[in-house]
Amino acid sequence: MDVSELRAMSDADLRDQYAESKRELFNLRMQLAARQLENFRRIREVRRDVARVLTVLGERSRAGSVQS
């Protein structure tokens, strides 16, 4: 997911995206432990998606507290 797409989302959508990505990451880790994971690169992609979402949420949080 691209950062510009994330910045276009609302806070609620970002939180939903975060929850969905964390759920997917958990499932990928379970597949890895059970040796059923075929695409190992997907774990890295999802971890980076989670980080991007948290970065955008953090930026908005800091921007809101600075303006107050």
Major pleated sheet: none
Going by helix content, strand content and strand pairing, the class is: mainly alpha
Q: Provide mean pLDDT, rounded.
A: 94
Shape type? elongated
The top level CATH class name? Mainly Alpha
* First-last Cα distance: 31 Å
Order of helices and strands: HHH
Number of strands: 0
Low-confidence stretches: none
Helical segment count = 3
Helicity level, as a percent range?
Answer: over 70%
CATH-defined architecture: Orthogonal Bundle
Strand content: under 5%
Show the helix and strand layout:
Elements: H1 3-8, H2 11-33, H3 41-67
Helix pairs in contact: 2-3
How does this structure look, described?
By secondary structure, the protein is an all-alpha fold. The protein has one domain (3-67): Helix Hairpins (Orthogonal Bundle). Helix content is 82%, strand content 0%. The chain contains three helices and no strands. The chain has helices at 3-8, 11-33, 41-67. 9% of the residues are buried. The mean pLDDT is 94.
